[in-house]
Design goal:
Length: 85
């Protein structure tokens, strides 16, 4: 956990909810930039997809996480492409 988590004026260690803290720990453990599909949350991290979505949304709401869109080839898709966030 970055030192700023404890020392920032925003007092993140008090303000963030448990789902957000879990998502923050997951995000910090991944190589940046990362792809984290919410539907994989239960399988990969034993956290529900809804909880993961809420946590990531709140991180973005606090400007602690940004989201980028990337189009990738996916031959299982009807268009041959999908969007990753």
């Amino acid at each position: 956990m970055p030192f700023e988590y404890w020392t920032a004026e925003e007092a993140w260690h008090h303000r963030l909810t448990l789902p957000v803290k879990a998502c923050l720990l997951i995000a910090l453990s991944l190589r940046q930039p990362f792809t984290l599909p919410a539907e994989r949350g239960p399988q990969w991290y034993r956290i529900s997809a809804d909880t993961l979505e809420r946590g990531l949304r709140e991180l973005r709401g606090h400007d602690l996480l940004s989201r980028r869109f990337k189009t990738v080839e996916n031959w299982l898709s009807p268009t041959g492409k999908t969007t990753e966030y």
